[in-house]
Design a protein that fits this description.
The protein is mainly alpha-helical and about 500 residues long. It has helices at about 5-15, 20-30, 35-50, 55-65, 70-85, 85-100, 105-115, 120-135, 140-150, 155-165, 170-190, 190-205, 215-225, 255-265, 280-290, 305-320, 340-345, 360-365, 380-400, 410-415, 415-430, 475-485; strands at about 245-250, 270, 325-330, 350-355, 405-410. The chain has 22 helices and five strands.
Length: about 500
């Protein structure tokens, strides 16, 4: 085998998002050269994408033993440690890379992201500024700077962003990211017309990268509703309880899941896991291997030994994140798709559904960059359709498991935080103290768009924020009205 040529093919496939091909190439290389560093590194990066940071950590550490001076490997290791909730270790891995290459823009960018997660906003802003000193047109650094600190519209960074977004040097993906960042700049400055203009431009640029997804979304929701029918749960097996026990905080993105997780993590028995992205990655693949069918076909028919095996695999992940903890949270919003499976896999776990008003939820989603695989997040009509199907699916879960999970309304939580938080604590079997309302608990990292907002005292200003832009959001409101009517939601 020509290992150099096969390696080139593997990394080209990875860059083109042909991950199965990249994996197969890496496996062929490793059959010929078991310790090939490029192939092991690629497998680690694929493991990260697949929601398996523990596997990725092992692979990166294995390569680093033989190649300790490769800074890119230290950054890969930092990504794995971050995804395992070990943010301080991740920061140290990046810092060790900077000791080798003090002018590595990639390392400063990674450090800024990790420091932002840890709420060290001043140090994060300094790291992003260092990136911009080294790489003047780095869109990710501008985005990070806007999250770490208030950037005034007339400041040099904002003016450079405006000049860059108007230039012809950027593709639509980078232009979209800059428009999202500029929307943040103008929102913080209270310049509503400029803010909404950049939101709409960001959405338009992002839509150009996505295919029309309504048929795909319809197939996903139809499949879930068919697989988890009421009659199919008459004799469903359940797995045993695991330790630590999971607390799933789920719902639509931007619904308040981060706030709920941080309130829960104020208790000493709870470790915040953040968005683990495990259920729709490793768990889903394992279910498909067991059933031999695409998920969710036959998922409710899994035998108890299979359920135990699936639960045990997740238990190992939780122990890595919260060794000795009573509870570990997983606040991946999209887990609402799998609530039925979570209920049978983790009978001792807790499930908290966070609901927020349709317009506020969707308006907030439109303001933030997701990825090309989420076309509904930048398309008002498609977003309204997905929201309607989400509400219909949640009614199905209420029919099947209504007494086994709790719904908290975001608006009630921010208006009466002590009352609603106490109710959540009682549901989880935890003792409540009013001091827990101080959500500034040290050591709890946040890896979402909410990282800069959630550490503020609980606030109500986001309720009804869409009304200022009612004219621009008329298509969204009309589409939501139709979608909720079609799905029987109020």
């Amino acid at each position: 085998m020509d290992i150099a040529a096969e390696t080139a093919r593997a990394y080209a496939a990875f860059a083109a998002a042909n991950y199965d091909e990249a994996h197969d190439c890496a496996e062929r290389i490793l059959r010929s050269a078991a310790n090939d560093p490029a192939a092991l590194t690629l497998k680690g990066r694929l493991a990260l994408l697949g929601g398996e940071p523990d596997t990725a950590e092992e692979l990166f550490a294995r390569v680093l033993e033989r190649h300790p001076r490769v800074v890119a490997l230290r950054l890969d290791l930092a990504s794995a440690l971050r995804d395992l909730g070990r943010h301080e270790e991740a920061a140290r891995a990046v810092t060790s890379g900077l000791e080798l290459e003090p002018d590595s823009a990639d390392a400063w960018l990674k450090l800024g992201d990790i420091l932002l997660s840890l709420d060290d906003r001043r140090a994060a802003a300094d790291a992003f500024r260092r990136v911009l000193d080294l790489r003047r047109d780095c869109v990710a650094a501008y985005r990070g700077l806007c999250l770490a600190t208030d950037v005034a519209p007339d400041s040099e960074p904002a003016q450079r962003m405006l000049a860059l977004v108007r230039s012809s040097s950027l593709g639509p993906r980078e232009q979209a990211k800059l428009h999202y960042a500029l929307a943040q700049v103008f929102r913080q400055a209270g310049r509503g017309p400029d803010f909404i203009d950049h939101v709409l431009m960001a959405n338009a640029k992002q839509r150009a990268l996505c295919r029309d997804g309504q048929a795909e979304y319809a197939a996903i929701f139809d499949g879930l509703e068919a697989a988890f029918a009421r009659e199919g749960f008459a004799a469903v097996e359940r797995a045993d309880e695991i330790q630590p026990s999971p607390i799933f905080v789920l719902g639509m993105p931007r619904s308040g899941t981060t706030l709920v997780e941080r309130l829960l993590a104020a208790h000493a028995d709870v470790v915040a896991g953040g968005e683990l992205n495990y259920m729709r990655g490793p768990l889903r693949r394992a279910v498909e291997q067991m059933t031999g069918l695409p998920f969710p076909h036959r998922s409710p028919a899994l035998a108890r030994p299979q359920l135990r095996s699936l639960a045990a695999a997740f238990e190992r992940r939780l122990r890595l994140i919260g060794p000795g903890a009573r509870y570990v949270t997983d606040k991946t919003p999209g887990n609402y798709h799998l609530l039925g499976l979570l209920r049978v896999l983790f009978p001792g776990g807790k499930i908290i559904h966070v609901a927020r008003s349709p317009m506020d939820t969707c308006f907030s989603i439109l303001q933030h960059p997701f990825d090309d695989r989420s076309p509904h997040t930048c398309d008002m009509a498609l977003l309204a359709y997905v929201y309607g199907r989400y509400r219909r699916l949640m009614r199905r879960w209420e029919e099947l498991f209504g007494a086994e999970f709790v719904t908290v309304e975001y608006e009630r939580l921010v208006q009466s935080p002590a009352v609603e938080a106490r109710r959540l604590y009682e549901f989880c079997g935890l003792e409540w103290r009013d001091s827990y309302l101080d959500s500034q608990r040290a050591g709890t990292a946040v890896r979402t768009f909410s990282s800069a907002q959630v550490r503020r005292p609980i606030y109500q200003t986001s309720i009804g924020a869409w009304r200022e832009f009612a004219a621009e959001l008329t298509p969204l409101r009309n589409a939501l009205d139709a979608a909720l009517l079609d799905t029987g939601s109020d």
